[in-house]
Amino acid sequence: MKPLYLQGSGTAVKLDGPALRVTRSGAAERWFPLQRISHVVSAVHIDWTIDALLACAENRITVSFIDDEGAVLARVAGKPGERSELRQRFLDFLLRPDWRDLYLQWIGAMERMAVRSVIRRTGLAFDRPPSAKALRRLFREGARAMGQLTVYDRIGGEVFGLLTTLVTRHLADVGITTESERMGELDPVTGLSSIVFWDFQLARLAWLEDRLRDDRLDIPDRLEIVGFFEARRERTERLIRGLLGRLHGWLLEIG
């Protein structure tokens, strides 16, 4: 199964039997079997029919709509997977009066772990390990020194939007979808995505350096950014699964 990325003016998506039929002005029609699609990332201007969206949901395919900056504006969540022990543990956890404080502690611990991993890979020696905030500032200063801060931020925004789509799918696979809405701004899609996003920090700077060597100073288009993301998708999915495993273990530990 592979993700489907849709963009381009004049593009429309309709249901055609067991497949999505994608048409675009001046281009040949294309068919994408639903059973081969893991999730869909669609530009907001794409014209979808209701039956095509419902077919995606029924086939456990989450459709995310992103704006021109790469931010996710809306999602149609796919049908949840089989009820898992992780899902039940998670729902039981949300019934605790102290769930918010405990969850923030766990997210903080996972972010510190991710930051330590990034620091090790930089090969830099620090008298005192920087905080997450300080490390983010250090990376942005590196991009600024290259005259590429705007490009760095744009790539980050687009990548984060793609990452939230992938995390949404993995949560749906274990049966966690709309149940997390009660968490508000602490929803697990944002929390888990923010942790995994650390794995893209060094890769973003390395890509900027490669582009500078080729005298490419412009902001990469969405297809380039999707290619950058897809090149790391296998590793990213391993990290997401590992993080869900840690979440499960922690929920078991706290009872």
TrEMBL record:
InterPro entries cross-referenced by the UniProt entry: CRISPR-assoc_Cas1, CRISPR-assoc_Cas1_N
Gene3D superfamilies tied to this protein: CRISPR-associated endonuclease Cas1, N-terminal domain
GO MF entries: endonuclease activity; hydrolase activity; metal ion binding; nucleic acid binding
GO annotation terms (biological process): defense response to virus; maintenance of CRISPR repeat elements
Record's keyword terms, sorted: Antiviral defense, Endonuclease, Hydrolase, Magnesium, Metal-binding, Nuclease
Record's keyword annotation contains Magnesium: yes
Pfam entry (one): Cas_Cas1
Highest rank taxon of the organism: Bacteria
UniProt keyword annotation of Transmembrane helix present: no
Protein name from the UniProt record: Uncharacterized protein
Species, as recorded: Methylocaldum marinum
